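Much of our argument rests on the idea that a fold can be written as discrete symbols. This step matters because it turns folding into a mapping between discrete strings. The record that follows shows the chain in one-letter code together with its fold in token form.
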Amino acid sequence: MPIPMPEVPPAPTTVETFRANVVRKLQLAVGKDSPHARPRDWCVATALATRDHVVERWMEATRRTYDSGAKRVYYFSLEFLIGRQLLDALNNLGLTETAREALAGLGLDIDAVRAVEPDPGLGNGGLGRLAACFMESMASLEVPAYGYGIRYDHGIFRQVRRDGWQMEYVKAVAYDTPITGWRGAHVNTVRLWSARATDPLSLVDFNRGDHVGALADRVRLEAISRVLYPADDTPAGHELRLRQEIFFASASLADRSAV
């Protein structure tokens, strides 16, 4: 059941304050000034300005969940086809027109700015889209939920073959993405794991002169989170897919037991 919670008032944000925050993010976070900023710089600055509003609600929703002792839904999926997040977040926060006017005052078209945002490519179709829709729906219904998956380096757009053995030596690094519900009343989390070798370089092999072989273990281990659905027409491909499932499931279960 949803946690009873007070209505979250609309963000007290004016066009002027949003515009000023975008410019501030451009200068202090991106490291550019307006005359020399490229489209991607403006996209990052706008995303960071929007993220400030998301994070406030994200932290508050998480605190309410823990304070109330409510149960959470844990959604495990190899795919989360969340797509581009900027416009979705602005819409759910009720800030789309504010952002549109703020950027227009800087000589920017919000549609052109958001078009620069890359698609994460973390899904292939129905399974990934269903997972993303469930996460957003639960946020809109104020149902506490946590999504778990893999943060693929190359998503679905590049198919490669890797051997993923020695998974037990891989460190799972968490990357969290807030999923904002309608009108920003509740924000849930998608946590994606990235496989990283605990020892990225074999110094013994490197000092022997095998500079390529010194990285071999790292390449094998980190192949786990390189690509969504690696080709499975070889035994190595079958093994890698299995190791992907074991990797994110075990990391996620360990993460929950540590809470």
